[in-house]
Write a structure and sequence with these properties.
Single alpha-helices involved in coiled-coils or other helix-helix interfaces; seven-stranded parallel beta sheet; Rossmann fold; alpha/beta; 55% helix; 7 strands; binds guanosine-5'-diphosphate
């Protein structure tokens, strides 16, 4: 399907193209036009569009997934249900590293490599700063310049506002939509060094950690837990004067990794050097992913891990639903402040207070 077709399907302008336009556009016709543009599509229309590879509908559906409005949430769930049978056929790769390590430059270089190989790539970037400036991660247009105009790539910043669980759910759901739209490689980029890495690790097949050489006490700088999750470490900016330092860092990290217990995947994470700027080592990084896929598909870890992730998702969803149900309950709303006060004043233990509140909540369900 060509880009023109995409337009045709999604633009209300074209749908209305046959309607004769009055010479003077009256106010009411402007209103009508606005309403038509805001036309609410059905879940089926969204799903059909996504399955046909329509990026505009894909984007809009992701916006629905990210919306906090109940009405959007329900529509999004409907779309996801219809896309789910067509999802799962991609390689999901988490990419992380401290700000400035070169994540976006790396994603651009690897992304261009992948689309040249015939892959269709979706990049979902979780932006911790988006609570301040909406979607700031890609607001900086210098990021992924070539990839953002590549018709086989789709780049989408995901706001990470709200609870971590909420972000995880939204990103997981966005992955499903992208896969249904035919993207066969999904990058999930996380910025920074926080808890979001664990979350992302729980939704990808392969976790890539980008690091820098010569940043001083390198091994202490990055949390051990994050290194332990990595399926590959790439020391970026291995170019110019930095090449020797990068090689030394590679050996150090390799040695450090040997101290970790063997991974359940049976895979030994390689430590490589690369330059996202010159492109050196980018091909090799992808080769590591390929080797990992061959190994873990053969030994069954790949499939097992996905099953386990779905299980985790179910439990997270239960937690989410119960929590919001609980806190939105009128009786709980009425009693909570008073209980909080009692706990603060040591009149009652936190546990006993929680038990009483949950019992109060339960009464309405039995
Ligand atoms: P991010 O914050 O992790 O996304 O990092 P960026 O991709 O924005 O890169 C941060 C800075 O490092 C930019 O000025 C890049 O041009 C530079 N950079 C990224 N990769 C490389 C590399 O491989 N070599 C060199 N020398 N600089 C790089």
């Amino acid at each position: 399907m060509s880009d023109n077709d995409h337009h045709h399907h999604s633009s209300a302008l074209q749908v209305n193209a046959g309607v004769p336009q009055p010479e003077q556009v009256s106010k009411s016709s402007v209103e009508r036009f606005k309403r038509a543009r805001r036309k609410v599509r059905t879940a089926r229309e969204y799903a059909d569009g996504i399955l046909a590879g329509n990026r505009i509908l894909l984007s809009q559906a992701i916006t629905l997934v990210e919306s906090s409005r109940q009405q959007h949430h329900e529509l999004a769930q409907d779309i996801i249900s219809q896309c789910l049978p067509h999802a799962g056929n991609s390689v999901r790769i988490g990419i992380t590293g401290v700000p400035g390590v070169g994540k976006s430059t790396f994603i651009e270089a690897l992304g261009i490599h992948l689309t040249a190989l015939g892959h269709k790539l979706a990049v979902l970037a979780i932006d911790p700063s988006s609570t301040r400036t909406k979607g700031s991660i890609l607001g900086d247009k210098t990021r992924m310049e070539a990839l953002s105009v590549d018709k086989n790539a789709f780049i989408r910043p995901s706001p990470s506002s709200g609870s971590l669980g909420g972000v995880a759910r939204k990103t997981r759901e966005s992955i499903i939509l992208c896969e249904a739209a035919g993207f066969d490689v999904i990058f999930v980029e996380t910025v920074g060094v926080g808890q979001s890495e664990t979350t992302v690790h729980g939704m990808v097949d392969f976790f890539l950690l980008l690091m820098l050489a010569g940043a001083g006490d390198e091994l202490q700088g990055i949390k051990r837990g994050i290194m332990e999750m990595a399926d590959a470490i790439c020391i970026n900016k291995a170019d110019g004067d930095n090449q020797q330092a990068a090689q030394r860092a590679r050996v150090e990290y390799q040695n450090a990794l040997h101290l970790f217990p063997p991974a359940p995947s049976g895979w030994t994470p390689p430590v490589q050097t690369c330059s996202a700027r010159t492109g050196t080592g980018i091909k090799e990084a992808w080769e590591s992913v390929q080797k990992y896929l061959i190994k873990t598909r053969q030994n069954g870890f790949f499939q097992e891990n996905r099953m386990e992730q779905k299980n985790l998702t179910l439990h997270e969803a239960i937690d989410d639903i119960l929590q919001s149900d609980f806190y939105n309950n009128n009786k709980i709303k009425a009693s909570l402040p008073q209980m909080q006060k009692a706990v603060r004043g040591d009149e009652v233990s936190a546990y006993v207070a929680a038990r009483q509140l949950v019992d109060l909540y339960d009464q309405q369900h039995s």
